[in-house]
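## tool: complex_structure
## caller: assistant
## args:
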Amino acid sequence: MKIRKIAKKDLDLFASVLPAFGRLYAPVPRGIGYAFDQPASWSEISLTYPRTMLPPRKFLLPPREALFAFDPKEGYRDLLAEAAEPQVLFGVHTYDIHGLNILDRVFAQGRYADPYYVTRRQHTAVIGIDFDPDAQHFARAMNTDFVDSGFDLFLSDIGADYLVRVGTSRGDDMVTMSGCLLSEPTPADIAQFKRRSGERHAAYRTEVDLGDLPEILEMEYHSDVWKELGDRCLSCGSCSMVCPTCYCFDVADDVDFGARSGRRIRAWDSCLFKTHALVAGGENFRKSRASRIMFRFYHKQRGFVAEYGRPSCVGCGRCIGACPAGIDIVSVIKMIRGQVDAD
Amino acid sequence: MSEEKTVLIIDDDPDFVRAVRFLFEAAGYAVATAPNGRDGLARAKTLRPDLILLDVMMQDRTEGFFTLEQIRDVPALQATPVIVISSIYTDHPVFRIGPGSGWLPADLFLPKPADPGRLMSEAARLMAPGYAGRSMAEKGSDLR
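## result:
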């Protein structure tokens, strides 16, 4: 992996040329938090943001997208070209890059790759940046506090400079195009990187013991914890909307008047919604709130481990802040482990 | 010769704005001004000028680059000729990514201080019927 460095004071100049690689999106203040959005100026970008309200999956799986159009005269017309708009995601944290890598495994790898996701991913450059964890982050416990793939460039704060890891040929093109803004790091820079990396790793305050969690979940399938959580859960779906790896979607035809032409729409869904498991005939496989919230935890922490070798939770902590009922994934895991009582 | 043509100057230097305004008004153009990128974008959307003169280093030293991207995001302004006028390459020689590298969606880059004769002749060329109104793609691959 090629490694370079860039002075922090020159990052604005570097960012100026990034639109040549696609529409630039970066963390900017929006409402009460931060969002990946188009910056109006460099000073609007926050490089020390704790987390964005929505993860960057919205750029690869839009909340609502038209897959194709149909018409009796024109027939079927795919809308893949709209997914091929180049974009640059600047300032993505490690756990969110892991989130994208997990989505890759679901949508881009395996027998049935999703052409819309794959097209967007191919046209999306990712520039990562490290961060100082707060009390809600538990990325270290999820092994997502460091990332070695899934990005084009990754910036690590080493004081007056950023150490820049080049992850792809597109990232290398960015370095080449930026001319003398990036230079070779010195041994002192590498030493500083190692020191800072260790400090960040040690800064996590929230721990989650994942060791034998899938087995414990298997044993606690009928635990009262699920009923207690079901009583508290509002089934609002906020946790899944802010999750970097939730990918439930609904597909419906948006038909024009006359019902002969229209567009097929894919939109975000949530397994917490009452209608998620509702099928024709009125049967609902997960009628109770307890069964739905239980399913979500089992999918994240057990089913995904069996299928892909790791949980699909990346430790961003967004769901902890988003839940209006105060359901905290870290506390839930401790409850299941019998380490704390349900409150 | 150039009546009804409007030039929008986006620059935070009042002396430069005054001097360039005088040049264009003397040549028969209508002139509007904005002191920063945000106001400039808003004026461009409502005014639909025939030419935009855009500074780079304003409140942010790369403000003009971001403003230009936002101008090009407005469908009605995608073909509007833009001349970027800046001293960024002399003020920040480390930034050696030339405007001809294909990343800057401007029609022309002129260094500051700009030669008045060249500025006026280039402005007239970019507002001429054969050039103005063409999309960035039509203007040629050297623009982006």
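## assistant note: DSSP finds twelve helices and twelve strands in chain A. The CA atoms of residues 6 and 56 of chain A lie 25 Å apart. Handing back to user.
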